[in-house]
Amino acid sequence: MSAQTKSVLTNLTPTSIGTETSRIQFLIKAALSGIRTSIPVKVISVTNTGGVSPIGTVSVQPLVSALDGSGQVWQHGTIYNVPYMRIQGGSNAVILDPQVGDIGIATVCDRDISGVKNTQGISAPASNRKFDFSDMVYLMTIIGAAPTQYVEFNASGITILSPNKVTINAPVVEIDAPSIVLNGAVTQGTGSNAGNATFGGSMAVTGDVTANGTSVHTHKHGGVQTGIGQTGVPV
Q1: Which residues contact 99 (CB under 8 A, 6 or more apart)?
Q2: For the chain, does the N or the C end have fewer beta carbons within 10 angstroms?
Q3: CATH tag for 36-143 (out of 3.40.190.10, 2.40.50.230, 3.40.50.720, 1.25.40.70)
């Protein structure tokens, strides 16, 4: 008899089974008490650490304890090899692996899913168990502190913030906007990654411009006789 069913039996009174209807209701409640749907859990360990890899698994600790027939509270043990959900379609994904200490919600499948986990395909239930913690899937975090690295969507727009580094790798990166503001130093290619920069419009520079080590503002031309004349336009 499950702890949930025992907890129902602790509420057994003459009134609860005094009529045929009440007896049927009692049996239904006892049966439903063994059904698991979802439960908050704490992440104990994770197989992945945010790198480019297949979806991994977590070990979790259920946070809602069991209650036996005498009213005694029992902590659940750690549940191992729990698949977690990732936003992924084919080879496209948002990689955001759970981290140790996360408190999230996990769902419990109604049948044994170990065959599907092993074969990654259609499989019969590997056992007769139903609504068992062994067939748990971790969904997402539901309780957590304010993030320090994030993508934020709100009425003002989209904000991407990282305290470390943002890297974009692609053969071509295109930004379409009537105005682009860069706040900070800009480096355009170094070494073997150096390339050409092409500007279709005018460029206004408030500081100096150095081309191949020579300042545009302070460089001098040799072989020029002093006088009041000016040099011609660049050729």
Answers
A1: 43, 46
A2: C
A3: 2.40.50.230
